[in-house]
From TrEMBL:
Keyword Membrane included in the entry's annotation: yes
Name under which the protein is recorded: Serine protease
Record's keyword terms, sorted: Hydrolase, Membrane, Protease, Transmembrane, Transmembrane helix
TM region(s), chain numbering: 30-49
Region (Disordered): 1-25
PANTHER family assigned to the protein according to its UniProt record, in alphabetical order: PEPTIDASE S12 (PTHR43343), PROTEASE DO-LIKE 8, CHLOROPLASTIC (PTHR43343:SF3)
UniProt keyword Protease, yes or no: yes
Family, as annotated: Belongs to the peptidase S1C family.
Organism: Pedococcus aerophilus
SUPFAM superfamilies from the UniProt entry: Trypsin-like serine proteases (SSF50494)
């Protein structure tokens, strides 16, 4: 068996002392030095690439400028947002109905125009009773243009409320969302067809609650919402909306102390809790 190979170990001090003449420095030391040099080069390159320009210290003026810019940006966004009136209109318009009648009035030969609102997926229409009371024919036009006849399904004279059942429904029925109770100072928006100007919106605030008014039929309507938005003939039976487009009342009339048949600045609506009850809606 051959003996293991024995390598002589040089005697004397070790370290960085130069090797004897004729001998070369081990290659692994060159590799180590090359690796260190490469690391130094890479580190320098990374530092050069990541070092940003000198940033001056933040001053009070800088802070103020940023605050003002933030306020300006917020104001610009607010200006671009739709108003409450626009949102209410867009929400409720698909459920608005135009109502035309024949054979109304004292001589039974007059035609009438009013508004109504769809309040159920079955197409049930809520309106003011005086819009359709005594009519020979009732026709309704939905927001998509669908026209059909309608019949009075329910009525309640004490609240001037009527429920209509249409003879035909549009392809898509869009019922309104019924809201809760209104409070004095709330923004409200009557939607209807004043003076034949279809799909018109006006705006105001709730002026008072629990008002009572006398109507030509001799009835006294009680518990009404008083508001200051413009209403005219053709608004009757239309929805009174809150800022979210929910129905909070059904427009029934306007204050008329001088017997003028036009807007005088005070309107009245039956609360939806009362009107909706006639249509079988749950209490709001």
């Amino acid at each position: 068996m051959p003996a293991p190979l024995v390598v002589d170990t040089p005697s004397g001090p070790v370290g960085d002392e130069a090797p004897p003449a004729g001998r070369r420095r081990p290659a692994r030391r060159w590799v180590a030095l090359a690796a260190v040099a490469a690391l130094l080069v890479v580190a320098g390159a990374v530092f050069a690439l990541t070092r940003g320009p000198d940033v001056p210290p933040l001053t009070q003026a800088d802070v103020q400028e940023q605050v003002q810019q933030g306020i300006a940006d917020a104001q610009e966004e607010a200006r671009k947002a739709p108003t409450d009136a626009a949102k209410a209109y867009q929400t409720a318009l698909p459920s608005l109905v135009t109502i035309t009648t024949t054979g109304v009035g004292e001589d039974d030969k007059q035609n009438g125009t009013g508004a109504g609102v769809v309040v159920s997926a079955e197409g049930t229409i809520l309106t003011a009773l005086h819009v359709v009371d005594g009519a020979d024919t009732i026709r309704v036009r939905f927001a998509d243009g669908t026209q059909t006849t309608a019949q009075i399904e329910e009525q309640e004279a004490t609240s001037d409320t009527a429920v209509l059942t249409p003879g035909r429904l549009p392809e898509v029925v869009v019922p309104a969302v019924l809201g809760g109770g209104a409070q004095v100072g709330d923004e409200v928006f009557p939607l209807g067809h004043p003076l034949g100007l279809t799909q018109s919106l006006s705006g105001g605030v709730v002026s008072a609650l629990d008002r009572s008014i006398s109507v030509p039929s001799g009835q006294t309507l009680k518990g009404l919402i008083q508001f200051d938005a413009a209403v005219n003939p053709g608004n009757s039976g239309g929805p009174l909306l809150n800022r979210d487009g929910q129905v909070v009342g059904i427009v029934t009339g306007l204050a008329n102390p001088s017997q003028q048949n036009f807007f005088v600045g005070i309107g009245f609506a039956v609360p939806i809790a009362t009107a909706g009850g006639v249509a079988g809606s749950p209490p709001q």
